[in-house]
Design a protein that fits this description.
Layout (H helix, E strand, L loop, with lengths): L2 E6 L22 H6 L8 H11 L3 E9 L3 H10 L5 E6 L7 H13 L2 E8 L2 H9 L4 E3 L7 H9 L4
Parallel strand pairs: 1-2, 1-4, 2-3, 4-5
Helix pairs in contact: 4-5
Length: about 160
Amino acid sequence: MTSSFAVFDIDGVLADVAHRLHHLSGRRKSWYRFFAAAADDPVLEEGRTRVHAAAAQHAVVYLSGRPEHVRRVTAAWLDQHEMPAGALLLRPNRDHRPARVLKPELLAAVARHGHVALVVDDDVDVCQALRDAGYPVLHATWAKESVVLRAAQEDEGRS
């Protein structure tokens, strides 16, 4: 029996990171403080509703540009906010490739185990890269768009 997967990004899809973006503004960015504050992210209700709906039909995979060193905080956040159980794929530590390069590579590993039925991400460049790779993509637009977060994902390969 082949599995089917619904793949969800976290930041900007399930988690509202707006309260911690100030750590990345200006010339002196504090990645440590940015990720340390992840435990306090409010949930984005639209994302939570969609992941629960998808979980009724597919196995859930969380695919995030967050670095591996925040795995414990991320897993606890998903549990605290009653997100469906699922595999958690994170950026390897010290891998600073743009999310549009990293995520298709990680998603290809998921696709080797079954059909990817849906991918939900907020980054327009990631969405395009995944569409170009043949995946069905929903562009999450329910969080306020942030130039700072986009730069972290695409220019600095950090989130």
